[in-house]
């Protein structure tokens, strides 16, 4: 049986982030979002820190989850993707380009969370229709651009993905 | 908005989980998907001394028919339930799961976690109440089964003792011709429902409704069974007159107190009537 980890002790956790193993030392109460930011993945944004805003959305084993609603210790052995993984070099991914084309960002704070949310949908439900996309996009909050350009970008990205998967 | 300190252990098996929970004492909490517990920790509304992580316990994610019941394991994720290919008329479970929070919440959130959290607006508790689910609890003292009607005691309070792990819920399948639906009203997708309804019945070839089940959510501290409405509809056709009368009786059953600043009691009762009507019309329209 695994033993108890004391509240103020730290434990080594190995996360696979964007394809590479990352070892972090965390006390039990450290959230996955904080651990990722401490490890340099500052695209993981902390807005509300209680699972409402969606700014900390990442992919966990390929599905969109809120990293503020996970402990870092729960990430042991799982595959994590952040927005840094969407592109290799200077060329934007289709989804990122759709955000650019539709002016789906202004201040950019919520953008990584939205991108990972929609990236998850692209992979799990490439055939998602308009209503489903609208429902999923409503998971996250944007306080400056508003939801409509983000929704339009998601529509375009899913359509482009279907045409050229 | 950071969780308070707690001791942590990950259980690999159900036996380990039960032993760890017993050892940790009554201020310990189980952690499964964490989609309700982590916000409680962030707000410091919960300050458990110990967390026992059961997320890696094998065998708790069963979702299958066993001995005339649908067994739903504690670790079945809402996103799995939402898309499950369930036979036997269990559409209500799928629909209820699909209405929980947002997709990223449903990817992590678990069936057992939702029942254990016992939020008055929780969808799955309403389904459990409607269809007389048996909730299986395990501790070092043994295994016991609690009917859903005795499980929910108050908001965020269940009949599970501090040393008990919720293993699964068993939904007895009513049999041929059974169908079920779930309806709720919330101001926006993903918000807490102002009112919800789980309804089901068996429709035989004679077109009469039997084994009618109706439960209501978000209109009291715990899920409410609308027994008068069930009885009124049993043995009737699902026609306009019967549906409207059943919806009226269901609304009379519940007593949402003054409500809150989201929705007052009168409004919630009106929603119940409307939602029951909508649910019954769908049951009558066929699968």
C-alpha termini separation of chain B: 45 Å
Largest interface: A-B, 37 and 37 residues
What is the CATH C level class of the largest domain in chain B, in words?
Alpha Beta
The spatial strand order of the largest sheet of chain A comes to: 2-1-5-3-4
Helical element count of chain B?
A: 11
Summarize the structure.
Helices cover 33% and strands 15% of the residues of chain A. Chain A is of the alpha+beta class and 165 residues long. Chain A has a five-stranded mixed sheet with strand order 2-1-5-3-4, covered by helices on one side.
How does this model look, in words?
The complex is a heterodimer of chains A (165) and B (287). Chain A has two domains: 11-85, Beta-grasp domain (Ubiquitin-like (UB roll), Roll), CATH 3.10.20; 88-163, DNA polymerase, domain 1 (Orthogonal Bundle). Chain A has helices spanning 32-38, 94-101, 111-124, 130-137, 147-163, and strands at residues 11-17, 20-26, 57-60, 63-66, 79-81. By secondary structure, chain A is of the alpha+beta class. The longest helix of chain A is centred in the last third of the chain and has 17 residues, at 147-163. Chain B folds into three domains: 7-53, Uridine Diphospho-n-acetylenolpyruvylglucosamine Reductase, domain 2 (2-Layer Sandwich); 63-172, Uridine Diphospho-n-acetylenolpyruvylglucosamine Reductase, domain 3 (2-Layer Sandwich); 178-285, CO dehydrogenase flavoprotein, C-terminal domain (Enolase-like, domain 1). In chain B, the strands form four sheets. In chain B, strands 4-5-10-6-7 form a five-stranded antiparallel sheet. Chain B has a four-stranded antiparallel sheet with strand order 11-12-13-14, with helices on both faces. In chain B, strands 1-3-2 form a three-stranded parallel sheet, covered by helices on one side. Chain B has helices at 14-24, 37-42, 78-82, 91-98, 103-108, 111-117, 123-130, 148-151, 227-233, 240-253, 265-285, and strands at 7-10, 28-31, 50-53, 63-66, 69-73, 134-139, 142-147, 152-154, 157-158, 165-172, 178-185, 195-203, 209-217, 224-225. Chain B is built from eleven helices and 14 strands. Chain A binds chain B through residues 1-8, 27-29, 31, 34, 48-51, 54, 57, 60, 63-66, 68-71, 73-74, 117, 120-121, 135-136, 138-139, and chain B through 1-12, 16, 19-20, 31, 34-35, 38-39, 41-43, 50-51, 53, 55, 79, 102-105, 107-108, 188-190.
């Amino acid at each position: 049986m695994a033993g108890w980890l004391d509240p103020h002790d730290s434990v080594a956790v190995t996360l696979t982030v964007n394809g590479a193993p990352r070892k972090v030392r965390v006390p039990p109460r450290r959230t996955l979002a904080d651990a990722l930011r401490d490890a340099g993945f500052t695209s993981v944004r902390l807005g509300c820190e209680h699972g409402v805003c969606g700014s900390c959305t990442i992919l966990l084993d390929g599905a969109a989850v809120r990293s503020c609603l996970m402990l870092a210790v729960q990430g042991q052995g799982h595959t994590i993707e952040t927005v840094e993984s969407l592109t290799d070099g200077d060329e934007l991914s289709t989804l990122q380009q759709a955000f650019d084309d539709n002016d789906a960002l202004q201040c950019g704070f919520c953008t990584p969370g939205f991108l990972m949310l929609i990236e998850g949908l692209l992979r799990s439900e490439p055939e998602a229709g308009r209503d489903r996309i609208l429902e999923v996009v409503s998971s996250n909050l944007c306080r400056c651009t508003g939801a409509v350009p983000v929704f339009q970008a998601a529509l375009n990205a899913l359509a482009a993905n279907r045409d050229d998967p | 908005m950071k969780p308070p300190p707690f001791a942590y252990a990950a259980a690999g098996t159900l036996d380990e989980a039960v032993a760890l929970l017993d050892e940790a004492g009554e201020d310990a909490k189980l952690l499964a998907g964490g989609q309700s517990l982590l916000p409680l920790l962030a707000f410091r509304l919960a300050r458990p001394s110990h967390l026992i992580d059961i997320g890696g316990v094998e065998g708790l994610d069963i979702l299958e028919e066993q001995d005339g019941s649908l067994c739903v394991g504690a670790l079945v994720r809402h996103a799995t339930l939402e898309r499950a290919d369930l036979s036997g008329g269990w559409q209500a479970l799928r629909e209820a799961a699909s209405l929980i929070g947002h997709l990223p919440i449903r990817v992590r959130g678990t069936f057992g976690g939702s029942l254990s959290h016992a939020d008055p607006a929780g969808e799955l508790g309403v389904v459990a109440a409607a269809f007389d689910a048996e909730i299986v609890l395990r501790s070092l003292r043994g295994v016991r089964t609690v009917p859903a009607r005795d499980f929910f005691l108050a908001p965020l309070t269940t009949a599970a003792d501090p040393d008990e792990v919720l293993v699964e819920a068993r939904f007895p399948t009513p049999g041929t011709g059974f169908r079920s639906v779930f309806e709720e009203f919330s101001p926006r997708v993903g918000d807490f429902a102002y009112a919800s309804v789980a309804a089901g019945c068996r429709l035989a070839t004679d077109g009469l409704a039997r084994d009618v089940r109706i439960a209501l959510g978000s209109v009291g501290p715990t899920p409410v069974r609308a027994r008068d409405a069930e009885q009124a509809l049993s043995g009737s056709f699902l026609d306009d007159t019967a549906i409207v009368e059943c919806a009226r009786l269901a609304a009379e059953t519940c007593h949402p107190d003054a409500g809150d600043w989201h929705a007052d009691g009168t409004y919630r009762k009106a929603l119940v009537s409307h939602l029951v009507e909508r649910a019954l019309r769908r049951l009558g329209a066929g699968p």
